[in-house]
Specification:
The protein is mostly helical and 83 residues long. It contains three helices and two strands, in the order ββααα. Helix content is 54%, strand content 5%. It is extended, with a radius of gyration of 17 Å. The two termini are 28 Å apart.
Length: 83
């Protein structure tokens, strides 16, 4: 995406949102991530990227009310067919 696509909110100027640009999305994600990771009592460094990707997937599909098990099966089948 490049640096030009990143938006900034200037907290020093008492600005917390500018139109659709706000920090609530990333703050919400980090809160969700911390809650998920506390269930595991920490994760091994070598597996961190896998847990992070799973959490990103869960976070992005949480609103769609889809059956997570079925969605993961679809992705696995798609991945296996490409191999």
């Amino acid at each position: 995406m490049g640096y030009a696509k990143h938006y900034r909110v200037h907290h020093g100027a008492n600005e917390f949102a500018r139109g659709n640009q706000h920090v609530n999305g990333i703050e919400s994600f980090w809160s969700y991530l911390k809650r998920r990771f506390t269930m595991f009592n920490g994760v091994k460094k070598s597996y961190f990227h896998l847990y992070l990707q799973e959490t990103v997937f869960r976070y992005n599909t949480r609103i769609q009310k889809k059956n997570l098990y079925k969605e993961i099966l679809k992705l696995l089948r798609k991945f296996n067919s490409q191999s």
